[in-house]
């Protein structure tokens, strides 16, 4: 008679799976809460204590860490000495293990959780059993995901336990090792909250969706959420309310759009295309913010992504519905706003109900490796700025400079932003040289460049940047200092009667 050991924290689908195994002639062994669920459901099972002949101790901390469990899981069926040892000890093999682990991530996500409570939710026996079964996958079928229960039971019903092919067993074992590895990675992250760049790091993720393809049709792609301690942030908490499934590029653009909108304290709209802002504006009313963001670059905005950092109301939705976009993303949608935008069948509507940005390190892939860095979340601090020109900014110019400086960090380098009030009027980004970025921003702004404020994400290497801005009518500029030619840059600003402010911060975004 084959034997199955069932020991799960997530009880989803457990009873139905156990019932099918029982009908297939399996003897079921179980532990603690799992055994209680099976017994209540009338599924026959024996306790681990009966198998080991040893009681659970330390309030259940030690129950499956026993040779009567691990020897049957690890015994190689093709090795006579292993089988002889089982017989000598009076043990029988275990042929299937269904196991998953204590809810550590869920526990530490709860507000006010103590270290003691977190430690109690670090599973020890579960990972040991899963690793043992996965190591011995030619003999033991290991199942860690409840979504696999139906397929595994059907395969046994169709082909018998012995008929499960080696390739299938190996894939289930790989999934089991990934399950334990991700679990350990979350624990390690929790225990070193102030050490973001340890000597060894494991990035744990959970697949949310297969995508039709990656950036291009010849590339495969999938969406994952990062598994980490704390509340679910970002894509893991998003909900697609309407429209077609998201593509790889949709996900990238939506993420960039939401991060941009959430970077502003006032009601703000950001319109993004190819992960670069076309327009950003803040206003007391989202509808006005949207109109001002759209006016920044209406040509590029076509087919882009609209993100707002406040619940979307009907007035703003009515304005957005006039143009063509791929996605609108907001913390939530008013009922009438949702109904209005749902009339556009190809428009994706995403609710991001927890408008917070992750503090986890950003990951940048390299060939054969990756880079980690802190997110660029540094607060805007005008008090740290230094006026280096003869003329100081007026209050209106300073407000526009602050807005432009807040916006420039979301534009790909080399990055230039022109703003009037609390709205961009011209954006130049992703250029190999800074003066071309200035020219592009000025061209986009047109007549609106007059009396605008300009932000540059890094220092000016030559005074030609100032000269192009001055010719367009820009009145005030904020940029990091530090160039060898800073004196020439300052002289060019003074010659044009421009305000020039140096900031100690740089905002490169490659």
Written description of the protein model:
This protein has 510 residues and is α/β, with parallel strands linked by helices. The chain contains 19 helices and 21 strands. The strands form five sheets. It has a six-stranded mixed β-sheet, with helices on both faces. A six-stranded mixed β-sheet has the order 16-21-20-19-17-18. The chain has a five-stranded parallel β-sheet with strand order 3-2-1-4-5, sandwiched between helices. α12 (286-296) runs parallel beside α14. The longest helix has 26 residues, at 166-191. It is elongated and about 95 Å long. The protein starts with a strand and ends in a 7-residue tail after the last strand. The relative contact order is 0.06.
Please tag this protein with its features.
510 residues; alpha/beta; six-stranded mixed beta sheet; 21 strands
How are the elements arranged and paired?
Layout: E1 3-7, H1 14-23, E2 27-30, H2 32-40, E3 46-47, H3 48-52, H4 67-74, H5 80-89, E4 96-99, H6 104-108, H7 115-120, H8 125-135, E5 141-143, H9 149-159, H10 166-191, E6 205-211, E7 221-226, E8 239-242, H11 248-262, E9 268-273, E10 276-282, H12 286-296, H13 298-301, E11 304-308, H14 314-320, E12 325-330, H15 335-342, E13 348-351, E14 362-366, E15 369-373, E16 386-387, H16 395-408, E17 416-420, E18 423-428, H17 434-445, E19 453-456, H18 464-472, E20 476-480, H19 486-495, E21 499-503
Parallel strand pairs: 1-2, 1-4, 2-3, 4-5, 11-12, 12-13, 19-20, 20-21
Antiparallel strand pairs: 6-7, 8-13, 9-10, 9-11, 14-15, 16-21, 17-18, 17-19
Helix pairs in contact: 4-8, 8-10, 12-14, 14-15, 17-18
